[in-house]
Automatic annotation (TrEMBL):
<dbReference type="GO" id="GO:0007155">
    <property type="term" value="P:cell adhesion"/>
</dbReference>
<dbReference type="Pfam" id="PF02210">
    <property type="entry name" value="Laminin_G_2"/>
</dbReference>
<dbReference type="InterPro" id="IPR013320">
    <property type="entry name" value="ConA-like_dom_sf"/>
</dbReference>
<feature type="region of interest" description="Disordered">
    <location>
        <begin position="648"/>
        <end position="670"/>
    </location>
</feature>
<feature type="domain" description="Laminin G">
    <location>
        <begin position="762"/>
        <end position="938"/>
    </location>
</feature>
<feature type="region of interest" description="Disordered">
    <location>
        <begin position="711"/>
        <end position="755"/>
    </location>
</feature>
<dbReference type="InterPro" id="IPR010307">
    <property type="entry name" value="Laminin_dom_II"/>
</dbReference>
<dbReference type="InterPro" id="IPR050372">
    <property type="entry name" value="Neurexin-related_CASP"/>
</dbReference>
<protein>
    <recommendedName>
        <fullName>Laminin G domain-containing protein</fullName>
    </recommendedName>
</protein>
<feature type="domain" description="Laminin G">
    <location>
        <begin position="120"/>
        <end position="336"/>
    </location>
</feature>
<feature type="coiled-coil region">
    <location>
        <begin position="13"/>
        <end position="87"/>
    </location>
</feature>
<keyword id="KW-0175">Coiled coil</keyword>
<keyword id="KW-0677">Repeat</keyword>
<feature type="domain" description="Laminin G">
    <location>
        <begin position="358"/>
        <end position="537"/>
    </location>
</feature>
<dbReference type="GO" id="GO:0016020">
    <property type="term" value="C:membrane"/>
</dbReference>
<feature type="compositionally biased region" description="Pro residues">
    <location>
        <begin position="652"/>
        <end position="662"/>
    </location>
</feature>
<dbReference type="Pfam" id="PF00054">
    <property type="entry name" value="Laminin_G_1"/>
</dbReference>
């Protein structure tokens, strides 16, 4: 038997080695291909960014072959890696992980470079391309702006040019919402469909010929505008407007059913039919009547001529960043030339000599430029740049000289829209005092900025804006030794720890830059290997449609003078995303009474004049949502994500004084003290109907004032569990398509996780930590009795289920619990002591229906349809006793210092273990709990040992561990579900001493402060930790020595030594920090916490805040 096992083991080991060798070989081949590809990327960026010639064909073919080969090889390598992981060949997997990370990084670089290639593509009537799906499709839902160029060759003698397909974006099957363009009679024809009320169409009376025409399409909700600009001796722009029918205004598409075809499309429109007729060659359809085709308004032959894409919602796009091509041969159909003297697509840049178009560069907010400098023997070093900025926060200029023992740096940045100068010349991070108050505000208006390093006997740093000195720092430094600097952002790995806390993602800014000079020499960014930067800048790229609010700020906007008054036919809308349950979102100050939209306990509430509407569902789920409301003399309608929430008759305003000043719009809060809290989250694509066209989205950069807001919206984190909450605009897509998907948005940095199967609207309790729900101020019963009901799935034979507490001590309480697997119901307090027990026993892991009818003199308990009733009490001494008046309900457990009803000893020591759902009081479903402690969604799959943090701000605080600083050793295992979050904080907030561990993308960061200044170390991994596997994190701090271990990787650093060392007892916060401190919350599992070589057991006295589950982690 042993010999057989040994032989089998040997075979497995041999097989694993063979798989590892094959995977290593695949990785080597890919690295070789990627080296060629990387060289191509650098060559393209140097040679082709400004290219306007017809010699691009070979380059495009090379790029296509490179990407095609990679996309075939990468799945093979990933499959080998997965096989190794499944076989348990852990070391081999770790050896390959660095190669995988490099592969993905280079693919991203290649695709990024391809998206910046501003060269037309020629189509022959049969060819076409499928572009990659945009990063965030929800960004296209309420607002879509597409800008491109068209050229159509003159027909030869006798040739008849028919209608032609130009582009289509929508679903694979050409059903549902879509947008497309065709050329009909040589004129641009635009069509889009939103919902089921039929498409909107618009044609512009301008022929497309040999000269390129610029086409600009803008849609906000149902309202569309298109312009076509041609140059025929003189520049001529023709505009038109259209409106889509119906009440639905969102372009609802979803990533797994989205295609973007340009120039042409496959002959069967989608390749799914090959699964039905696998014997057919690609593109062949047995019956055209059965083949999916474009929507009828776009059902034309492919395009003949040249097309060049420009931007899609302020993001530069290129036809050369394609997913697939169809019969495209650029060696035969060479791209046309479009010269840069052609007028751009937007208004303020109509001059053919616009320097921002020819010399400027667009920074899209995701990258940076690294600019090298030649050595110069001069006492003065000068750096020039001219900026037009959209970002409210980020790094403009960063210069660093890395040398032992201390690095020195200079950082010119923007914070809350104001220019700041940060520096560290060896004495820690400092901020320079501005020479003028207030400091300069950087906006989309052009500002010339110069940075001077002055040497000699008095070393100084000067910063000038528009030739006015705004900062001056006189201090010894060695920055003149630096050989390069960063513009527009910095790679996070290059940032000092002190700046990484301010700009954790590198501080990339969005805006435009030109006139760059380093040490007197002009710098051409087109010739540098930059990230997130493209050539040319037009005003449409500087529109700010989104703002992030930080909980105690607001944004004030001027309403257009032609905005429809509140007494007329009102139509307004805005997008939002937040996990905050109560806040002011939108407030219009004008005649006609109040008009405001708020979140109240997660429900969207509209108050218009004297009419109030409220959603049944909650929308504080962190997903993207869009709110619209209509009103006229007959009614008011409230929509969220294109779904009608409520309609009520319109009630006009009462007479009231006219507000002072012109009408305004407040977003995210109010400067006045009010009952409604200011908003924390993102607001975007704000729309107010105007009496006179065209209809436009608000440019939030053009505001009357703001406080504590920042531009743009960060991508939504994946902090929700499937079926826990609605999925916002993506759920709307599913409803429209009748195929509902409950999978949340995936964090792009993470590997797809195993499905976390949850039960809708069900709560899970249990574990050693405090676990309960509290429902305060429940509605009073209209009668002298109350009825409570719920579904219960117990995991233990005993446990506390529910306590109904009255408002006053003169009324009784009601208690429901499990004892020896029987449900027991009894009263506590004044009045008769009633008690009843279920006739049958509960079954572990099975759902049971439990209902309690509670009257003054008896209680009835019904379990799975079997009823039991207490003995009716007929005593006279309590005839005046009040009936049941529940005011507060506790479910699953009690607060540590809360009510103490009489319970059996075995039950009083443990709360309920299991799941509860469908809580009803007097027949009505209870809404969201007032407080949720130690409770998570109920999982239907198996659980394993550990704590589970849902990512909604939950935290566990342990202050009885005996942990001390400055000397401590901590070890734990984590399995994150998102790439960013606070793992633990050891200390009392930001007061030294403290120790803090955080995951940030591919980096694990460890900070410490003993009172002499903060210091840190980090470990950078090939992939983020959120890969579905457990990872060991080890932290050791001995005096000023800090060491971090992440699996088999490690790093350490030395920090400053304080004047005195004092052993200080400090609490440990896991998964987050309690109020009022803020850190990005952790989402995922934690287990096996070890402090100073001792395994920590979770004490019942541990402090719990929010949604943290100690009953176990969902197994993946």
């Amino acid at each position: 038997m042993l010999a057989m096992d040994t032989d089998e083991t040997s075979k497995k080991i041999a097989h694993a080695k063979a798989v590892a060798a094959e995977a290593q070989d695949t990785a080597a081949r890919m690295q070789s291909q990627l080296q060629d590809m990387h060289r191509n990327v650098e060559r393209w960026q140097g040679q082709y960014k400004g290219l306007q010639s017809q010699d691009l064909g070979p380059v495009v073919l090379d790029a296509g072959r490179s990407v095609s080969t990679l996309e075939k090889t990468l799945p093979q390598l990933l499959a080998k890696l997965n096989l190794l992981q499944d076989r348990g060949a852990h070391n081999a997997s770790l050896a390959l992980s660095a190669s995988i990370g490099r592969v993905r990084e280079l693919i991203a670089q290649a695709r990024g470079a391809a998206s910046k290639v501003k060269v037309p593509m020629k189509f022959n009537g049969s060819s076409g391309v499928q572009l990659r799906t945009p990063r965030d499709l929800t960004n296209l839902a309420s607002y879509t702006a597409l800008k491109f160029y068209l050229q159509s060759p003159e027909p030869t003698a006798g040739q008849v040019v028919g209608d032609q397909f130009v582009l289509y974006m929508g679903g694979h099957q050409a059903t549902g919402d879509y947008m497309g363009v065709a050329l009909r009679g040589q004129r641009v024809h635009w069509v889009y469909q939103l919902g089921g009320a039929g498409p909107a169409t618009l044609s512009i009376d301008e022929d497309i010929g040999e000269q390129f025409a610029a086409v600009s399409i803008d849609r906000i909700l149902q309202f569309g505008r298109m312009s076509v600009t041609v140059e025929n001796r003189m520049v001529q722009e023709t505009k038109g407007d259209t409106v889509a029918p119906g009440a639905e205004g969102l372009l609802n598409v979803q990533p797994d059913d989205f295609v973007f075809y340009v120039g042409g499309y496959p002959s069967n429109f989608t390749e799914v039919l090959l699964s039905v007729w696998p014997e057919l060659p690609a593109g062949v359809c047995p019956d055209c009547a059965l083949c999916p085709q474009p929507p009828e308004p776009l059902r034309f032959p492919g395009y003949r001529g040249c097309i060049e894409l420009d931007t899609l919602n302020e993001e530069v796009v290129s036809l050369y960043n394609f997913e697939k091509t169809f019969q495209l041969d650029t060696a035969v159909d060479k791209p046309c030339a479009r010269y840069l003297t052609f007028p751009p697509l937007t208004g303020s840049s109509k001059s053919t000599g616009d320097p921002w178009l020819t010399d400027g560069s667009y920074l899209d907010g995701s990258g940076f430029a690294r600019i090298s400098m030649e050595s110069q023997f001069s006492n003065t070093k000068r750096f020039d740049q001219e900026l037009r900025l959209v970002s409210y926060s980020g790094i403009i200029f960063f210069l660093q000289h890395q040398a032992c023992p201390l690095d020195q740096f200079l950082c010119l940045a923007v914070q809350e829209g104001k220019l700041v100068l940060l520096y560290d010349f060896g004495a820690g991070l400092k901020e320079a005092d501005p020479l003028q108050q207030p400091p300069p505000q950087l906006t989309a208006t052009s500002k010339a900025i110069q940075v001077f390093l002055l040497g000699g006997n008095r070393k100084r740093v000067l910063v000038r804006v528009e030739r006015t000195t705004v900062f001056s720092v006189e201090q010894e430094n060695v920055l003149e030794l630096a050989d390069a600097y960063y513009l527009g952002g910095v790679p996070p790995s290059q940032l000092p720890a002190s700046l990484r806390q301010l700009f954790p993602s590198g501080g990339s800014v969005r805006g435009c830059v030109k006139g760059i000079k380093a040490l007197g020499k002009y710098v051409d960014l087109k010739r540098l290997n930059t990230t997130g930067i493209s050539a040319g800048c037009t005003t449409d790229l500087l529109v700010g449609r989104a703002m992030t609010f930080h909980g105690h700020g607001f944004l004030r906007l001027a309403l257009p003078s032609d905005a429809v008054p509140l007494t007329g036919d009102v139509y307004s809308g805005f997008g939002f995303r937040s996990s905050q349950d109560s806040a002011l979102l939108f407030q219009r100050e004008s005649l006609g009474g109040p008009c405001e939209v708020t979140l109240q306990q997660g429900h969207v509430t509209l108050r218009l004049a004297r009419t109030e509407l409220k959603t049944q569902e909650r929308f504080d789920d962190g997903a993207a949502h869009y709110v619209t409301f209509y009103s006229n003399s007959t009614g008011v309608w409230l929509y969220v994500d294109d779904q009608l929430q409520e309609m009520k008759p319109y009630r006009g305003p009462r007479p009231q004084p006219q507000p002072a000043g012109p009408p305004q719009l407040l977003l995210g809060g109010s400067p006045k003290a009010d009952d409604v809290r200011n908003f924390s989250g993102c607001i975007s694509n704000v729309f107010v109907l105007r009496l006179l066209g065209p209809q436009r989205v608000f440019d939030l950069q053009e505001n009357l004032g703001s406080f504590n807001v920042s531009s743009g919206c960060t991508p939504a984190p994946r902090t929700q569990l499937p079926e826990q909450v609605p999925q916002g605009l993506r759920a709307t897509v599913s409803r429209k398509a009748a195929r509902r998907s409950r999978q949340p948005a995936q964090d792009s940095a993470c590997s797809p996780p195993g499905s976390l199967r949850t039960i809708r609207d069900a709560y899970q309790f249990g574990g050693p930590l405090t676990s309960y729900l509290e429902f305060a101020h429940v509605p009073a019963s209209p009668s002298d009795w109350s009825q409570l009901s719920m579904l219960v799935r117990p995991h233990a034979p005993r446990g506390f289920l529910l306590l109904a507490v009255p408002q006053t001590a003169s009324s009784p309480s009601l208690l429901l619990f499990l004892n020896h697997r029987r449900f027991v119901d009894q009263t506590e307090g004044p009045g008769p002591q009633l008690r009843v027990q279920s006739r049958q026993r509960s079954r572990t892991g099975q759902w049971h229906t439990v209902s309690v009818r509670w009257e003054k003199s008896w209680i009835q308990l019904v379990t799975d349809g079997v009823w039991a009733q207490s003995q009716e009490w007929l005593g006279r001494q309590h005839q005046g006793q009040q009936g049941p008046r529940p005011h507060t309900l506790f479910v699953g457990g009690l607060p540590a210092s809360g009510h103490s009803p009489r319970l059996p000893v075995a039950i009083s020591r443990a709360g309920f273990r299991g799941c509860v759902k469908r809580l009803r009081l007097d027949g009505r479903l209870l809404g969201a709990p007032t407080r949720m402690v130690g409770v998570t969604p109920c999982f239907s799959g198996p659980l394993e040992k550990g704590l589970f943090f849902t990512g909604s701000g939950g935290a566990v605080t342990l202050d009885t561990l005996g942990a001390t600083l400055p000397d401590v050793a901590l070890e734990l295992e984590v399995r994150p579900q998102t790439a960013t979050g606070l793992v633990f904080h050891l200390g009392r907030g930001q007061t030294p001493p403290y120790l803090e561990l955080q995951v940030l993308g591919k980096q694990v960061l460890l900070w410490a402060n003993d009172g002499a200044g903060e210091f840190s170390t980090l470990v950078t991994r090939p992939e983020a930790l959120c890969d579905g596997h457990w990872h060991r994190l080890g932290v050791t701090k001995g005096g000023n020595v800090l060491r971090l271990e992440v699996d088999q990787q490690s790093n350490h650093t030395l920090g400053p030594v304080p004047a005195t060392w004092t052993n200080t007892l400090v609490p440990l916060h896991l998964g987050g920090l309690p109020e009022p401190w803020k850190r990005p919350p952790y989402n995922g599992c934690v287990r096996n916490l070890v402090l100073n070589q001792v395994l920590v057991t979770w004490p019942p006295t541990a402090g719990v805040q929010g949604a943290v589950g100690a009953s176990g982690c969902p197994a993946t």
